Amino acid sequence: MSSFRILFDWEDPAGVRGPELAATWARLEILVDGTPLTELEDLRTKAIRSGVYVPLYPLAEWLAANWWHLWYEDRAHQEPPAFARHSFLAAREGFALPDIRIWPTESRILIECWPYEHVHAGVRFLNRLDLSLDMEGVRDETIRLIEAVLDKLSEKQIAGTSLQEEWRLIADSESNEEERTFCEYAARLGVDPYALDPEVGGKIEELLVRLPASVRQDFFDSADPAKLSAQADPLMAFFRSQRSRILKTSGNTFRDRIGN
Questions:
Q1: Local confidence band at 14 (pLDDT 50, 70, 90 cut-offs)
Q2: How much is the average pLDDT of 150-159?
């Protein structure tokens, strides 16, 4: 079975500004089946190394901010506007990270990695990869990274960060089945469950009750958030007509039976 690992060692920040950045400065390696996706060439010295030196706070913050989309936004692979919710490049904040992309596909995660040159940092990431992995293993590694960063912030008495607030919201939602379901389907729709237009949020709640479970995922994976009612109404009308036909047929059969 393929494996996904995030390895890191805390390092001296050597004058890095910003408390969250300095507190979480580390040597980072990301490996799939032992292959370091963080392998890079130093463009100045031509040396090759398997890890990169970066603060882990921006990556952990990005993972938390896009948590539900990372695991449920199946449409994202086909829709370029969603790229920033699935690519590590959106987590750089000026630092060097490899071009790793995470795409959910049902219970699996597609990991893509592309060679990428970070001119400002003077490095070139070297590896190319395209592999489907077990979702649970990838989630476990990202949770381990986020919690390590949170522990480091606590150790340095840093509070009130967006990561800490975001992770608290996620933990609350994960522990409540109704909230968790809402967040999942909001992400499938391509919207942030914590920053929703109240009208869209109400429509999601309504459809989660009214839509049959057999079609729910397919509908949310393809629906337009701005046209939920227009797209859902014909579907609901179809199921109502089917239900009416079944009830009518069942009633006739029963009446026929008692009349014999």
A1: confident
A2: 97
Euclidean distance between CA atoms 120 and 169, whole angstroms: 35
The closest alpha carbon to 29, from 57, 12, 49, 44, belongs to 49
pLDDT confidence of residue 42: 95
Closest CA to 5 of 42, 73, 51: 51
* Contacts for 48 with CB less than 8 Å, ≥ 6 apart: 39, 40, 41, 42, 126
Handedness of CA 177, 178, 182, 188 (dihedral sign): positive
Q: Are 33 and 101 in contact (CB under 8 A)?
A: no
Q: Residue 221: is it exposed, middle or buried by C-beta count within 10 angstroms (0-12/13-18/19+)?
A: middle
Helices (H), the chain: 19-23, 57-65, 67-72, 135-155, 162-174, 177-189, 198-210, 213-222, 228-259
Closest CA to 207 of 194, 224, 222, 219: 219
pLDDT digits (tens, 9 = 90+) for 94-103: 999 999 999 9
Reported pTM: 0.88
Tell me whether strands 108-114 and 116-118 are parallel, antiparallel or unpaired.
Answer: unpaired
